[in-house]
Amino acid sequence: MNRLDLKIPPVVTGAVTAISMWLVSRTLPTLAFAPLRVVAAGLGLVGAAITALAMLSFWRARTTVNPLKPSSTSFLVTSGIYRFTRNPMYLGLLFVLVGWALYLANVLSCLFLPAFILYMIRFQIKPEERALTARFGREYLEYASRVHRWI
């Protein structure tokens, strides 16, 4: 286990990414035009809806939504949006960040998106997967073999 594994809440990682994107966007002129802002808002709303559906699934199952303590999960959620993606909360956050990148309309800000994905996979998703495998064993491995991490 790496010292960064499961240490920074994903929402903080997303916020730092969004702020960094904004700061970098100030260095070059934007390519903004009204239809791009509409698409950006739409992606942000889709991301928020995906995250809300995921959280609702966890609340219905009465299991933790705390991403820093996956070992305290009491139930493996595989229904609802979890039939399509194993990480809908992170996928929703990514949609919000893509919407933000389009809103900023700056090519440099888009460079933070792959960095966010790589960071999340390495320091959040893989440690979660190890914890869920230890907790649920074959049930989680079978689920993981059927459903992709992102989409």
Your description of this structure?
The structure is a single chain. This protein has 151 residues and is mainly α. It has one domain. Helices cover 66% and strands 0% of the residues. It contains 6 helices and no strands. It has helices at 10-25, 34-61, 88-104, 107-110, 112-136, 138-146. The model has no long low-confidence stretch (mean pLDDT 93).
Strand and helix map with partners:
Blueprint (H helix, E strand, L loop, with lengths): L9 H16 L8 H28 L26 H17 L2 H4 L1 H25 L1 H9 L5
Helix pairs in contact: 1-3, 1-5, 2-3, 3-5, 5-6
Could you provide a short overview of the structure?
With 151 residues, this protein is mainly α.
- For the termini, the CA-CA separation is 26 Å
The number of distinct β-strands equals: 0
Strand content: under 5%
The total number of structural domains is: 1
Describe this protein with a few key phrases.
151 residues, mainly alpha, 6 helices
